[in-house]
Each structure stands twice: as structure tokens, then as C-alpha cells.
UniProtKB/TrEMBL annotation:
Gene3D superfamilies: Mitochondrial biogenesis AIM24
Name under which the protein is recorded: TIGR00266 family protein
Originating species: Algibacter mikhailovii
Superkingdom field: Bacteria
NCBIfam families assigned: TIGR00266 family protein
Record-linked InterPro entries: AIM24, AIM24_sf, Trp_RNA-bd_attenuator-like_dom
Cross-referenced PANTHER family: ALTERED INHERITANCE OF MITOCHONDRIA PROTEIN 24, MITOCHONDRIAL, TRYPTOPHAN RNA-BINDING ATTENUATOR PROTEIN-LIKE PROTEIN
């Protein structure tokens, strides 16, 4: 194996975290900001690119950093190494409510394609790159643009799903329609395209967007019930306007309650 062979445990329900057990000389790479806790003695290092074998040498580091810029991520990642004689543990937390999904890349033919913000952490040696869409419709209307993220190698990687995760095993020729934001990732054998909903009423009044993702097997597909974009949209829509506290929320009077409140003066 070119990637480090790590052991792990996943804890929690709604807000999960993954605990990685590192043997001597083993390491793990993670997105900046996902670190939760670690045992004393683990060495932490900020690296340029993803730190994989494909990222070796100065030119490789530049290309690796450039790939991460295209996916909208930071050009830096954080690596954690166990350089001591005993086992050490390091943990990484979910960025928002959902599930952490372990991906054994050897079971996916060494490659897994996912949304560009789904990656959480991976064994040292796994390459975190970009997957360009070759189809115009997918790039323009797929919600993720022309670029998705790809995880390559023979080690363990961990991705995050918002809300509840659904795993679907598509047979040869079997298709399913999915909201574009609800896709976490899929097998490299899955064909992914965008399909227009159609119909004037659906287009104007449907409220579900104009395009669905069409996934065709064979292969495995992971779907999330709560994309971060949907969660953020609901939070913004519920935020009080003007930066003040919405005192009428949940009351019978509603907005009239604000007018009658003692803090409002004419």
C-alpha cells in the first residue's frame, strides 16, 4: 500500500467525529479547521497541497495547491504524524450536523468522486484532486460547476454528509434522479448528468430548482438529506432583519407584537 493503513472509530449521532489511531510513523491529512483533539506527542504540520506521493517535489506541490484553489479550498492542509514508539490518537469533527462516511478506496477501484466540500480527512498518501466535468450541461447547471473533487489511492478517506445519509447501489443501466445539492459522492463507474425538469408550472412554481442530477449505474451513490447550502439558506431566511431580535417570532401577534413591545418607540 502507498497510503498509510490507519485504524478508526466514529462517535456520536447528529454531530459526529472520527478518531484516527496512528501507529508509529503513520500520518493523516485533514482539511484546515476540522481538527478536534489529539494525544500528546503527535506532530502537527501545515503542508502545501495534499501531501500525497503525487504531490512530491516543488512542481508537484504547486500543482497540488493549484488544484485546491480550483475546488475553492485552502491551498494548505494539515498533516498529523505519530513519530513516537506507541500508538497515538487524533480526532476530527463534522462541520455541521450529519454523518461521517468512511470510504475504503480499495473497494472503489482506487477512486471516489465527491462534492468539493465533502472531504474531511484521509490517510497520508491519499491524493485529493479535482475531477473535471466533460459535459457542458453538468458544468453549467450541476450546482458544483465543472469541477468536483476526487479521492485517489489505496487508503481510507472520510467524507461528511449533512443530515441523514442514504446509500444506493445502482445496477447496470439503473437510473435515479437526485437534487443536485444532495449528492455526496459516487463510484467512478456511475454516469452523472443533468436533466431539465420541464413544464412551465414546474419551472415557475415548482420551488425545486430547474435541474435534477441523473445518476446511472452501475456503482454506489451516497446522498445527503441536508446539503449545507440548504441549511444556510434556511438560517439566513429566518435571521431577523436589521440585526435585531425578532420578538414576534412564534407568537400569536407576530409582527404586531414588535409594535407593542416596550423597546419600540415612535
Amino acid at each position: 500500500m502507498t497510503a498509510h493503513e490507519i485504524d478508526y472509530s466514529i462517535y456520536g449521532e447528529e454531530m459526529q467525529y472520527v478518531e484516527i489511531e496512528l501507529d508509529p510513523n503513520e500520518g493523516v491529512v485533514a482539511e484546515a479547521g476540522s481538527f478536534m483533539m489529539m494525544d500528546n506527542g503527535i506532530q502537527m504540520e501545515t503542508i502545501f497541497g495534499d501531501g500525497s506521493q503525487n504531490d512530491s517535489g516543488f512542481l508537484g506541490k504547486i500543482l497540488g495547491a493549484g488544484k485546491r484553489i480550483l475546488t475553492g479550498e485552502s491551498i494548505f492542509m494539515t498533516a498529523f504524524y505519530n513519530n513516537l514508539s506507541g500508538k497515538r490518537k487524533v480526532s476530527f469533527a463534522s462541520p455541521y450536523p450529519g454523518k461521517i462516511i468512511p470510504i475504503d478506496l480499495t473497494r472503489f477501484g482506487g477512486k471516489f468522486i465527491c462534492q468539493k466540500d465533502a472531504f474531511l480527512c484521509a490517510a497520508k498518501g491519499v491524493s485529493i484532486g479535482i475531477e473535471f466535468s466533460k459535459k457542458l450541461g453538468r458544468g453549467l447547471f450541476g450546482g458544483e460547476g465543472f469541477i468536483m473533487q476526487k479521492l485517489e489511492g489505496d487508503g481510507m478517506a472520510f467524507v461528511h454528509a449533512g443530515g441523514t445519509m442514504a446509500k444506493k447501489e445502482l445496477q447496470v443501466g439503473e437510473t435515479m434522479m437526485v437534487d443536485t445539492g444532495c449528492i455526496i459522492g459516487f463510484d467512478q463507474t456511475v454516469d452523472y448528468d443533468i436533466e431539465f425538469i420541464g413544464g412551465i408550472k414546474n419551472t415557475i412554481f415548482g420551488g425545486e430548482g430547474l435541474f435534477f442530477a441523473k445518476l446511472q449505474g452501475p456503482g454506489t451513490v451516497y446522498i445527503q438529506s441536508l446539503p449545507f447550502s440548504r441549511l444556510a439558506g434556511r438560517v439566513l431566511a429566518s435571521a431577523p432583519r436589521g440585526g435585531g431580535k425578532d420578538k414576534g417570532e412564534g407568537s400569536i401577534l407576530g409582527g404586531l407584537g414588535d409594535l407593542l413591545d416596550g423597546d419600540n418607540r415612535f
